[in-house]
Specification:
The chain is α+β, with helices and mostly antiparallel strands. It is 31% helix and 33% strand. It has one helix at residues 16-70, and strands at residues 73-76, 82-83, 86-89, 98-105, 108-115, 119-122, 128-137, 146-155, 167-175. It has a five-stranded antiparallel sheet with strand order 1-3-4-5-6, covered by helices on one side. A four-stranded antiparallel sheet has the order 2-7-8-9, covered by helices on one side. The longest helix is centred in the N-terminal third of the chain and has 55 residues, at 16-70. The radius of gyration is 31 Å and the shape is rod-shaped. The termini are far apart.
Length: 177
């Protein structure tokens, strides 16, 4: 029964192979945990960016459609034409003309609202850049003015990081009341 006994020199420690195996398994577990955590953080950032662009786009679209519905008349674009600027006449003389257009502010294109001679508001923030703003007058002869609105918002990403890239097109159509 000699072959069942441990040699007297054995001290019960780990062999080099066992130690390397444990280190490899531990490294695999830590690597998996880090990959999952990084993926979750990237997804959180992507969700925040998507929400920001969607929120600002809906805010702009709502503002423009309400202004068109409440306007007395559309000055520009004329029937059958398209333009990057929308000019409206309102019942309040001090707000005439009410104009929506693009303006560059701090190297970011923003959608601007001008009412009358004095009031100017930027409808988008520096976190997004606006492009492709287009108003198309689809009015049918004898009908009420009907305007199609299209624009694109892109999350402002000067570092050009892939996880910060997001762009969305917004569309709307509304008619004067």
């Amino acid at each position: 029964m000699y072959w069942f006994r441990k040699p007297a020199s054995s001290k019960g420690g780990y062999t080099l192979v066992e130690l390397l195996l444990y280190v490899a398994i531990f490294s695999l577990i830590i690597g998996t945990i880090l990959a999952v955590a990084t993926s979750a953080a990237d997804q959180k950032i992507k969700n925040q960016i998507t929400q920001e662009v969607d929120y600002q786009g809906q805010l702009v679209l709502t503002n423009i459609t309400q202004a068109i519905r409440n306007a007395a008349a559309v000055n520009s674009p004329t029937t059958g034409n398209a333009a990057s600027l929308l000019s409206l006449s309102t019942a309040i003389a001090a707000n005439n003309p009410t104009v929506y257009d693009l303006v560059q502010d701090q190297s970011v294109n923003k959608i601007r609202l001008r009412q009358g001679a004095n009031t100017t508001s930027l409808l988008t923030s520096s976190r997004v850049t606006a492009s492709k703003l287009l108003f198309t007058n689809r009015t049918i002869t004898g009908g009420k003015d009907s305007i199609d609105i299209t624009f694109t918002l892109t999350y402002y990403n000067p570092a050009n990081k892939p996880q910060l890239q997001y762009q969305k097109n917004f569309y709307g159509t509304t008619t004067l009341r």
